[in-house]
Amino acid sequence: MNLSDVPLRPGSAELLPVRGVRALQAFDNRDWVAVEVPVALEFNGIAHAVMLATPADLADFALGFALSEGILLGRNELYGVEEAYGPEGITLKLDVASAAFARLKERRRSMAGRTGCGLCGTESLAHVTRALPPLADGPALSTRAVARGMRELASMQVLQKVTGAVHAAAWCSAEGEALLVREDVGRHNALDKLVGALARSSVAASTGFIAVTSRASFEMVQKTVAAGVPLLAAVSASTSLATAIAQDTGLTLAGFVRSDDLVIYTHPWRLNGLPANA
């Protein structure tokens, strides 16, 4: 596939030499590989976290990370983002309001040792989850809309089609139209990018749902709730903690969303179109 034929984000993939075997025949070629680099986040000059991410949509990533982690309470608390490129990676320098910076300093100890896949190194059980406001009821959604949203997300995964190595997250309208899509090597990063893009857009987050190409871990649930979105649809399963948080916050959580099939873990009342029990 020629990179010029698809609207890939600049810097998200690179051509590398590869050697392989197909039909018992050896070959040498060049193939597109997803770019993965360290991305550091600084808030008012203070280093906070380093993530391994795809270096595209970084302004969305910075805003979405800060919002979904509860550092910012709104887009208006972010004054600007500077991207600094160096030999070891990229630094995102966020200029945030003093209230947000004070909030960050209060949370810094609870973020100790955090990784892209969980909370390794967190100092106490109380730091695993944080209080989140309950979600509004939102619009009535249908299982057909959820299925459509997952199909449209798959069709819009440009970087995944080229590299086969990334996750994606989409915000979909109540009818299932995927209006915003973001990709990244990390599933949390893809969702953070989407949350940032959603915050910058003119759409109301609570009027649709989020579809993701991963399992529904508790962090994916927390980020969805923090964004004010009432339904999370995942292509794979939920976990027990994710299910408990979804139940407590009023999030409708659906997993194994494939074709017209799905499993609903919490708050099925928000979904129409479920067949009656035999």
UniProtKB/TrEMBL annotation:
Organism classification: Bacteria, Pseudomonadati, Pseudomonadota, Betaproteobacteria, Burkholderiales
The UniProt record lists the keyword Cytoplasm: yes
InterPro entries assigned to the protein according to its UniProt record, in alphabetical order: Cytidine_deaminase-like, FdhD
UniProt KW keywords: Cytoplasm, Molybdenum cofactor biosynthesis
Organism whose genome encodes this protein: Variovorax beijingensis
Purpose: Required for formate dehydrogenase (FDH) activity. Acts as a sulfur carrier protein that transfers sulfur from IscS to the molybdenum cofactor prior to its insertion into FDH.
Protein name: Sulfur carrier protein FdhD
NCBIfam families: fdhD_narQ
Gene3D superfamilies: 3.10.20.10, Cytidine Deaminase, domain 2
Transmembrane parts of this sequence: none
Entry annotation: catalytic residues: 117
Localization in the cell: Cytoplasm
One Pfam family this sequence matches: FdhD-NarQ
Protein family: Belongs to the FdhD family.
SUPFAM superfamilies: Cytidine deaminase-like
